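ok, trying the design again with the full structure, not the truncated one.
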């Protein structure tokens, strides 16, 4: 999400409280009489643009003049959220089947190994093709906020697990009046980390190893 009058860029990582953040920012911008566009004109899918795509589209000077932030969360919690909201769960899929079948179906080739989706997200702009928003929801998070040299290119990375504290920091740094985020797009289902078998944990390490290492996450008990 890009708000030019506020000099603000929010890199919306899927299933990381982004809908709540965009709802808050949209309401604030409307109250201030600002025009809000969640997407760049004639470029569908920019709701889930990577930081690299924003810099490419806006130019380095404009990009660097903005306050840029993103929210991330433990991949194990993020995947359970996907499962809890998925038609596969309602159809009776086991979590392990969902993790393998659904992931491979959506990413079409990720069994080649090694954070396939994350690397694809980083290269897609440069290669001139754009997957749909659903695929971006499966991307590894570090790829969404890093550049070609694998360096973080946003000013602040908050964590969903400490959203209250981190949202206040974001508001302070962005010079926005603080108020709590609305609760939106929640599955309303408690997360059961016991669903992660040893095989499922190995799959998560293979698919989201970059995120796990960069943010020092492990599977909660």
């Amino acid at each position: 999400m890009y708000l030019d009058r506020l000099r603000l860029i929010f890199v919306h990582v899927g299933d990381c409280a982004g809908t709540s953040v965009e709802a808050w920012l949209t309401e604030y911008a409307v109250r201030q009489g600002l025009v809000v566009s969640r997407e760049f004109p004639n470029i569908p899918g920019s709701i889930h643009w990577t930081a690299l795509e924003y810099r490419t589209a806006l130019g380095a000077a404009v990009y660097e003049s903005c306050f840029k932030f993103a929210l991330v969360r433990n991949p194990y919690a993020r995947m359970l959220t996907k499962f809890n909201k998925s038609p596969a769960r309602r159809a009776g899929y086991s979590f392990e089947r969902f993790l393998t079948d659904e992931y491979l179906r959506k990413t079409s080739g990720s069994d080649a190994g090694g954070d396939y989706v994350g690397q694809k997200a980083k290269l897609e702009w440069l290669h001139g093709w754009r997957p749909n928003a659903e695929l971006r929801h499966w991307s590894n998070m570090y790829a969404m906020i890093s550049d070609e040299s694998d360096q973080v290119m946003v000013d602040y990375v908050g964590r969903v697990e400490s959203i209250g504290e981190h949202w206040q920091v974001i508001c302070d740094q962005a010079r926005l009046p603080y108020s709590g985020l609305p609760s939106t797009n929640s599955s309303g289902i408690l997360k059961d980390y016991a669903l992660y078998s040893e095989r499922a944990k190995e799959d998560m390490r293979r698919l989201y190893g970059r995120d796990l290492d960069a943010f020092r996450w492990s599977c909660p008990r």
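Keeping the full-length input from now on. The first strand starts at residue 2 and ends at 3.
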